[in-house]
Amino acid sequence: MISSQSLTQQIVNDLGLAIVQGKYSGENTFPIEADLCEQFGVSRSVLREAVKMLTSKGLLRARPRQGTWVQPEQSWNLLDPDVLRWLLDRKFSIELLSEFTEIRLAVEPQAAAFAAERASAEQKQAIVDALARMQAAERGDDDALLSDIAFHVAVLEASGNRFHSQLKDLVETALRISIRLTNQYKGVALASVADHKKVLDAILAGDGKAAHAASFELVKEASDLIAEAREKRC
């Protein structure tokens, strides 16, 4: 039997994607509670929890005795990994990916600098292990995408900054799209282990300035490749 929590997550995903895809825009008003309960075969309490979650993501607005309606796109929480995933699933947007990479340029180099100064032995080991996975991926012994993501997430978690750490789900979501695109335009299937190792070496050496520079160059390369791809699509 599927748990109520799993049902709620499924409804959130189905409705969230439908909202982002424009199913309920224009003349298509958001369905009433009774119709949605019938559609998904769930109780009102399960549905209300799903609506509450979508409201927290900025997609819906609900008022007692007035109903529920879809919020304009500018109200959506783009820092929510689900919202970003739905947007990327809706229709691939290289503009959205470019904007996200600009955020990475502002966040990841500083996270790497902080990691060099603050990371615990355990956190440094997590970055070492992630690079080892990337090296294994070069040999065909690990997943190239997942190991690359693991490296970036490990650096964020090692920053000692809770805000950086909480961006890991957002970064992971967007990197799943970004890495495939940038590797495609580089003409290789794998990320540069050597470039990632420069970030690791600086962190292990406790050199915040070098860690910042190495991380910036790593993300800047991705930014430049996305810009190149954007120009070719124009």
Can you describe what's shown?
Helices cover 71% and strands 3% of the residues. The chain is mainly alpha-helical. It has 2 domains: 4-75, Winged helix-like DNA-binding domain superfamily/Winged helix DNA-binding domain (Arc Repressor Mutant, subunit A, Orthogonal Bundle), CATH 1.10.10.10; 92-233, Four Helix Bundle (Hemerythrin (Met), subunit A) (Up-down Bundle). A two-stranded antiparallel sheet has the order 1-2. Helix 5 (94-118) crosses helix 9 (168-186), helix 7 crosses helix 9 and helix 10 (193-204) packs antiparallel against helix 11 (208-233).
Number of helices: 11
Q: What percent of the residues sit in helical stretches (DSSP H or I)?
A: over 70%
Radius of gyration: 21 Å
The percent range for strand residues is under 5%
CATH architecture type of the largest domain: Up-down Bundle
**Largest sheet, if any?**
2 strands, antiparallel
Note the gap between the termini. 49 Å
CATH class of the largest domain: Mainly Alpha
User: How confident overall, as mean pLDDT?
Assistant: 88
